[in-house]
Amino acid sequence: MLKYNNLSQRLLDADYAVRGRIVTRAQELEKEGKKITYCNIGNPHAFKQKPMTYVREVLSLLEYPQLLDKNISSLFHDDSIKRARYILEQIPEGIGAYSASAGVSFVRKAVAEFITKRDNIVANPDKIILTDGASKAAQTVIHAIIKNSNDGIMLPIPQYPMYSASLTMAGGLSIGYYLDEENNWQLNEDILTASYNTAKLNKLNPVAITVINPGNPTGAVLSYENIQMIISFARKHGMAILADEVYQENIYTDNAKFYSFAKVMDDMQISDVTLFSFHSMSKGYFGECGHRSGYLEIRNMTDDVFAQFVKFQSINLCANVVGQIATYLMVSPPQIGDDSYELYLKERNIIINDLREKSVIIGNELNNIEGISVNIPEGAMYAFVKFELPNVAKDNSFNPKTDEKYCIKLLEETGICVVPGSGFGQMPNTLHFRTTFLPPREQIIELVAKLKDFHHKYICQDF
């Protein structure tokens, strides 16, 4: 029988806090009958976010195309029916067959058209790979560019722990750089330079820099000027850029605007920095996490190198085809004049406006708690909350870090499941946790009230 010590050390060393010890404890409590509110992960449909109708209509018809031979106009919008017929014309074998390794060609073309329309720049469908979500795209890049054991990728602190875990699995090193919490989590060139120089002094080789915009877990949106600085920094040091842009639809304030790295790089007329851009249908107003759909766009790469990325994808044959079609639906939604357009617009606006309101609610309510503070999220679906503990309790059977201990006690006392900041990385001598603001508005207010009462009792050790 396979033993624990026979497993890959890289697997044992990899850590993914979003579904780590806190969630394991939450599941144990749930089995015991305690009501748990899972604020640990961005999973919109788990909080009853309604799926976009046109997505589910088209996918339903593709899963059971015999419906297209029946009179279904009373059940499906006309443009959904037309869209399903068009897709089946492009893939007459249906969605149960393998596709080309890089993905269905008409979907890749649609992704390129989406990028062109979004950024007013040229996008090449032959440099796009359809993937099982953005995480899979990022993992592909990480495994492809880590060549030696001293190769590393610069990661933001705090970061989304999929990156550090994937680097561990690939045999590479995480080179952290701190985001500037006092400046709404923007990137600071001096901090980037210090991180890079320290890595070089330690004989490490930074091959790329990862940027998450809008931010996870911070909820920050990078300015145009900040992105320019990052691109120039990467160029100066000969690094590629991994641009995680899965929350690009999630912008909640007029003071922030999403700019893609591809757009800014094109404006700067830079053609010698390789750019990997990720997008996904899991976030935004779609929230289709379970369909595992996304794409990887690569810029400034020769054909022979790109062919190796396609080869990497071909090892898994192809991304799941239903996910590929979901990506197509993400980048080519109903247009003015389509039968389902008004419903699509209404559903989209309801979701985005609801998230916008909840980002302000959770920010304001948390900032009203003594000892707790947060930058009100400008985007994404998370808040990275800072808390202070004048008296830190020492007794806990889990023997975790200070913030983990706090989060476990919060879970056990209130049923609120959040992720400790140490799972994402944080400045020394600071404590944070990440929470989503996906629950309904009334529930968020209730959760914050519970948190306020808990925090007061915790610092007084009144349990």
Question: Can you put this structure into words, describing what you see?
Answer:
- 42% of the residues lie in helices and 13% in strands.
- The chain is α/β, with parallel strands linked by helices and 463 residues long.
- It folds into two domains: 7-48 and 345-460, Alpha-Beta Complex (Aspartate Aminotransferase, domain 1); 90-331, Type I PLP-dependent aspartate aminotransferase-like (Major domain) (Aspartate Aminotransferase, domain 2).
- The strands form three sheets. The chain has a seven-stranded mixed beta sheet with strand order 2-8-7-6-5-3-4, sandwiched between helices.
- Helix 3 crosses helix 4 (78-90) and helix 13 packs parallel to helix 15 (441-460).
- The relative contact order is 0.15.
- Residues 393-399 have low confidence and may be disordered.
**What's the β-strand tally?**
13
CATH topology descriptor of the largest domain:
Aspartate Aminotransferase, domain 2
Distance between the termini: 44 Å
Q: Major beta sheet, specifics?
A: 7 strands, mixed
CATH class of the largest domain: Alpha Beta
* CATH architectural name of the largest domain: 3-Layer(aba) Sandwich
Total of domains: 2
Q: Proportion of β residues?
A: 5-15%
Order of strands, widest sheet: 2-8-7-6-5-3-4
Low-confidence stretches are: 393-399
> Count the helices. How many?
15
- Topology as a string of helices (H) and strands (E): HHEHHHEHEHEHEHEHEEHHHEEHEEEH
Mean pLDDT: 90
Find the CATH superfamily of the largest domain.
Type I PLP-dependent aspartate aminotransferase-like (Major domain)
User: Quick one: overall form?
Assistant: globular
Helix share of residues? 40-55%
Radius of gyration: 23 Å
Protein structure class: alpha/beta
